[in-house]
Specification:
Shape of chain B: elongated
Structural class of chain B: mainly alpha
Number of helices of chain B: 3
Helix content of chain A: over 70%
Helix content of chain B: over 70%
Strand content of chain A: under 5%
Largest interface: A-B, 86 and 69 residues
Number of strands of chain B: 0
Shape of chain A: globular
Radius of gyration of chain A: 21 Å
Number of helices of chain A: 7
Oligomer: heterodimer
Distance between the termini of chain A: 63 Å
Chain lengths: 168, 100
């Protein structure tokens, strides 16, 4: 009962916060609601026994990406944004599309059958701490994708500098 | 124990909210934030699958998604700053240079 109550609180708050994010007029308010949403997502990760991911969610999303968004909003002067129209003229079509896709997903979920369980049970992870288990898998089985991820970040750094530089 | 279907449902709702936000908002900053919202909803479902199937592959995938999301946010905001320098507009329906 208690886990379901927790999940109910998290899901209701997260859905309300997502709706607030996409409807606020001021982008700064959206970013601040997103901060609260990311804290709730980190709480949900803790609830799912993913402690290290919860920490990464705090540090990377709340600490780095949202600050980047705030910087971008600060650099642009968005005074007229507070009076401009928020949505495109065809917004009911977008909402209808979203609702229809949501219904499609729900019909699919009701047919969902869970597959066989793997070897990383909670006891196995508890014996070796979560961070160590994840590190072992990441640096042995997924070493090559890990290196590619570093390449992606390098390309993003170079691309961001090139784009933001004063073009000649 | 919370059923796995609930997590997938929550993830689907947040994903659709992000998608609708991406479609209906005019402001590019909010559109980029909607993309982050969609990526986060997928992360929720991956972590839930990883927990219920007792397999760490989902959580490893979340790491890569977070790395790609950080790269995407950096490049997207750089594009936004460059666009604002050239056009002084952040509304998508005012940017019509590529329209035939």
């Amino acid at each position: 009962m208690l886990p379901k109550l927790f999940f109910g609180y998290f899901s209701i708050v997260m859905i309300v916060l997502s709706l607030l994010i996409i409807t606020r007029r001021n982008p700064v308010h959206s970013v601040l609601w997103m901060l609260v949403l990311f804290f709730h997502i980190a709480g949900l990760y803790l609830f799912l026994n993913a402690e290290f991911l919860a920490a990464v969610q705090f540090i990377l999303y709340a600490g780095a990406i949202l600050v980047l968004f705030l910087f971008a909003i600060m650099m642009l002067n968005l005074k007229e944004e507070l009076t401009a129209e928020r949505f495109i003229g065809e917004w009911p079509i977008g909402v209808a599309l979203g609702i229809s896709i949501l219904m499609l997903i729900y019909f699919t979920i009701s047919k969902f059958i869970q597959g066989p369980a793997g070897q990383y049970t909670i006891e196995a992870i508890k014996k070796e701490t979560h961070t160590k288990t994840i590190g072992k898998v990441l640096y042995t089985e997924y070493l090559f994708p890990f290196e590619i991820a570093s390449l992606i970040l390098l390309i993003a750094i170079v691309g961001a500098i090139v784009l933001a530089k004063k073009s000649g | 124990m919370v059923p796995l279907n609930w997590y997938i449902g929550l993830s689907a709702v947040i994903f659709i909210i992000g998608m609708v936000g991406f479609i209906i908002r005019r402001n590019i900053i909010i559109m980029l934030m909607s993309v982050e919202l969609m990526l986060n909803s997928v992360n929720i479902s991956l972590v839930a699958f990883s927990h219920y199937l007792q397999d760490l592959k989902g959580q490893i995938l979340v790491f890569f998604i977070i790395a790609v999301a950080a790269a995407e946010a950096a490049v997207g905001l750089a594009i936004l700053v460059a666009l604002f320098k050239n056009k002084a507009a952040v509304h998508t329906d005012e940017i019509t240079e590529m329209k035939g």
